Amino acid sequence: MSHKREELLKALEEKFAKTGQNLDVHLSGLLHSTDITYWDYIQTEALLNLQIQRTNLPDEMVFIVYHQINELLFKMILWEIDQISNNENLTTTFFADRLYRISRYFDMLANSFEVMGDGMEVSQYMKFRDTLTPASGFQSAQYRMIEFASTELINLIDFRFRKTIDRNTPYEYAFENLYWQAAGKDFKTGEKSPLLNNFETKYKDFFIDYMKTYNSKNLWTKYKSLPENERNNVNLKNAMRHYDFTVNVKWVMAHYHAAAKYINSGEGSGEATGGSDWQKYMHPRYQRRIFFPELWSEEELENWGLDNLEGIKTL
Are residues 134 and 14 in the same domain? Predict the structure, then answer.
């Protein structure tokens, strides 16, 4: 037996001994195991059978697959955020590297809107979208989780109501004044649309628990808890700014323009799926969603969401 094999067997014995297991049992099991295949590992068949159309219009398949890809990318983003949030020995290098990973995922999302924006016939979309009512991409729970895990709640409150919120505000009250409530609530009457009612019936309790969990470990709070010299790390600050801009301007505006192409096409009611007030909900100039406000200059904040603000300057 080679020396390398002896070392491997010894390491395996030690590994299984720590959990009270016998290495010989595991080695015996290997005699009956089968080779792993790509399709089993990725679960290809299961994945490709998750697309269930509600109409016979071909372009609905584009719509379904595109949004499922979005949700998979959201899962990757949450995976990276959790590595930062739950890291007890966080370094600026680790923090910045994970933020750039997340930004690349959002770059994919922002650049992919042409798939949906130019990849479906307007006439087909305006037909099958009616079968989706009152469902809407607004109801992506993972996207809300990304927001809660990225910044303090005050930065997600509807801009009109932020003065009524502080650190002692009950989570229930904060939830009722989140910026995206504007998409499904009549603030004069307080009446909520089916879009919002369905979303809250499914996720409200979970969201409030999630808000509490990330209140002290969201990305912005984790950054502010770093020593001053680490907060001043230029690479980390640029990574924070890049992430903030990519999510809250670049991706949002790509989504906004893609939605406008169909909603303002002259076909249909001119409303978003679910009947949401999509312009007030989506446009960054209206809601001024900014994850890390103190990392931006007054001029940058003033110009937030303008179409001519095509990128950000590094520090």
Answer: no
Distance (Å, whole) CA 157 – CA 165: 8
Residue 47 lies in a domain: no
pLDDT tens-digit map of 240-283: 999 999 999 998 888 888 777 776 655 655 555 545 555 666 77
Total domains, the chain: 2
Evaluate whether 131 touches 152 at the Cβ level (below 8 Å): no
CA distance linking residue 280 with residue 183, whole number of Å: 7
The reply to whether 307 falls in a domain is no
CB 150 within 8 A of CB 215: no
> Virtual CA dihedral for 56, 61, 63, 67, nearest 10 degrees?
140
Instruction: Give the predicted TM-score (pTM) of the model.
Output: 0.89
Q: How far is CA 178 from the centre of its chain?
A: 16
**CB atoms < 10 A from the CB of 308, how many?**
5
